Amino acid sequence: xxxxxxxxxxxxxxxxxxxxxxxxxxxxxxxxxxxxxxxxxxxxxxxxxxxxxxxxxxxxxxxxxxxxxxxxxxxxxxxxxxxxxxxxxxxxxxxxxxxxxxxxxxxxxxxxxxxxxxxxxxxxxxxxxxxxxxxxxxxxxxxxxxxxxxxxxxxxxxxxxxxxxxxxxxxxxxxxxxxxxxxxxxxxxxxxxxxxxxxxxxxxxxxxxxxxxxxxxxxxxxx
Length: 223
Ligand code: IPE
Ligand code: IPE
Ligand code: MG
Known about the structure:
Layout: E1 6-10, H1 14-20, H2 25-45, E2 50-57, H3 65-89, E3 91-96, H4 104-117, E4 123-131, H5 133-146, H6 153-159, E5 168-171, E6 190-193, H7 203-214
Parallel strand pairs: 1-2, 1-5, 2-4, 3-4, 5-6
Helix pairs in contact: 1-2, 2-3, 3-4
This protein binds 3-methylbut-3-enyl trihydrogen diphosphate (IPE) (2 copies) and magnesium ion (MG).
């Protein structure tokens, strides 16, 4: 059986979920944010040690300002809602991406939250905000240059926002693309695309995907 150390999810389809029921896109983002808890719980049950979720990309700034503002208000709500809960449940929380572009209050809250949960060790829960894989690689190479290190796979991996390879990448929302998410870490990931829109993505479906993954032979270029 495969080891499953890291699941990454491109949480797509919130807007279409809302539209389908005649609601504005924001309702979809709220429903999506509420669904994260189910996904996290399922990963804890399967003893998956790392979960990385794509919440806001470096490209998502192109969206209408009211949508962007609403998504960021959800991040504020999320941080205050889950701080104690995560601590009690052994969740080590981290935001990855370029957070220097976020407003100062949100940056402070993020850093405080990470500090508060940094010794928790049931699961590393990484939330991508203002994240793009190309941007991450540029920031990584800059760090390597500043530290005067050699460019090699080990140093690149160590200096990324997230150093753990992704075993299983899932994209909800019926689009078969990666949209600039964790390109280095997904080099050998199994990829699963589902038509389910993220707010409807259930722990039952995730369980099935995990079980398929566990029973798939991974050869890593061997035989
Ligand atoms: C994903 O859902 C959430 C973000 C990108 C913030 P979308 O908002 O992209 O939903 P669709 O793809 O338009 O349905
Ligand atoms: C990817 O979804 C980004 C997130 C899920 C945060 P998008 O909806 O922004 O990506 P595209 O436009 O389908 O590539
Ligand atoms: Mg989308």
